[in-house]
Amino acid sequence: MKIFTSAQIRELDRYTIEHEPIQSIDLMERAASTLARTIANTWDSSVKVVVFAGPGNNGGDALAVARLLGEQGYQVAVFLFNIRGRLSPDCLINKRRVQECKHIKKFVEVTQEFDPPQLEKGMLVIDGLFGSGLNKPLAGGFASLVKYINASPAEVVAIDMPSGLMSEDNTYNVSSNIIRASVTLTLQQPKLSFLFPENQQFIGRLRTLDIRLSQEGISKIDANYTVIEESDVRPLLKDRNPFAHKGQMGHALIMAGSYGMAGAAILATKACLRAGAGKVTVHTPRKNCQIMQVAVPEAVLQLDHEETIITEAVDTENFQALGIGPGIGQNEATAIPFIAQLRRATCPIVADADAINILASHRAWKQQLPKGIILTPHAKELDRLEGASVDSFERLTKAHQLAERLHGYVIVKGRYTAICMPDGHIRFNSTGNAGMATAGSGDVLTGIITALLARGYEPQHACIVGVYLHGLAGDLAARDLGEESLTASDIIDYLPRAFKRLKE
Ligand SMILES: NC(=O)C1=CN([C@@H]2O[C@H](COP(=O)(O)OP(=O)(O)OC[C@H]3O[C@@H](n4cnc5c(N)ncnc54)[C@H](O)[C@@H]3O)[C@@H](O)[C@H]2O)[C@@H](O)CC1
Ligand SMILES: Nc1ncnc2c1ncn2[C@@H]1O[C@H](COP(=O)(O)OP(=O)(O)O)[C@@H](O)[C@H]1O
Ligand SMILES: [K+]
Questions:
Q1: Domain named YjeF C-terminal: which ranges (predicted)?
Q2: What's the ipTM?
């Protein structure tokens, strides 16, 4: 699914109007009837409704919703904010329709002074002040109105977007000037800012309503952001040749673990085997020998000559992929061979966890990374690597610039893990759940992506399939076990079911 910017939403609007063809006022009516139907399905006509409409098309939608609810017997009071004496053409038409509607008993057009209505518990506020046309954060009277609504005990339904929230960049926004909705009814497609954790407080429960914008327009407009869906992943999966032998299924090298962190090596290695690699060799400190042999008997051990940390760079000619970093620590005696290893590797690489922390404390090394490298930081690791960010948008921007600079892939892990591609595209994962917020989940992802690279997946496909499968395994595990008790090992245990589901 594509995520469009506000400029692209306007373009898609225009495309639909021109090619369906449909009058823009009728498109607004179509959106409004979908909105009104959804509201009526949740709140019956005993609820008192207060509609706040702005001067643009978001306000136009809200006015049309007010009229439609009025016609269905809801008691609706409408406040239209027309401070500059300028309404969008469709907002103006809907203002007249509301004025003519005998079911709307209270209609106030605010041009200067505003005497706010009493908002009580049990009332429903419809927020139609601003949507995707907001061009700067709210201030002044609108900011005061937002604060007033937020302070009230009434429930708030936002049309398209909570007013005050920008579609993409909220870096310089003021959170107290943004509507906190309990439900957001967004039109056609979620907006980029909805994917960020800090914005969930504004959005509440999100519902995406299909208002039948042109499918042809949607496919023609090239989006920089997309959400990965199952239908994107299925065609990427490789078959296993019935005559396959393990030598053809990819030999992966995992460099992981230090004494006390053998678990990271175990999780990455097990996940790598479960994700289909033909053979997995683990390079790990000597002291991990016994535990590795017991925990993952399928893996081949390559022991470092040091007891407790990794201190060697090794030949990768016999391997088709290298996964490096989980639990390796940040000792300088590990850091030096680590960068040597990256320079020396002849196969695709996934670098995670301490690998990223080492790079963060040796900034100059970032220029020496091989092209096509896959980095898998969580938000904090990315902050260490690229400097602190004030919000997710800024962090995503930095990740995407890093991917372009490195000609590599930067996977920022989280609820909607973002894969930043070297060509500037960003693909968001849709699978996964809060049960996966548990130590070791990231090590499992490293193992999975390493296996896919070893199997011969193109790096971009290994990233897409890897994050999707990882989240899907987590979702299938959570369905059976619940989120609370989920462990990283459960994600590995459910990988077979995730593959099976995608291959069915
Ligand atoms: N393709 C779609 O998704 C459709 C969108 N529609 C609606 O149209 C909306 C977008 O309409 P518009 O482009 O008219 O934009 P909005 O209605 O979101 O806002 C634009 C108006 O707000 C003013 N404005 C912007 N920022 C401001 C600020 N910081 N302070 C004060 N005033 C500010 C602008 O000058 C303009 O008058 C969507 O959010 C949606 O509700 C629907 O009508 C139907 C189709
Ligand atoms: N709330 C969540 N929703 C979806 N996925 C999540 C959530 N929390 C964590 N995950 C996933 O779990 C993994 C956690 O990785 P990471 O933070 O590196 O953990 P660790 O360092 O403990 O292994 C990531 O792939 C992330 O996307
Ligand atoms: K709104």
A1: 229-502
A2: 0.95
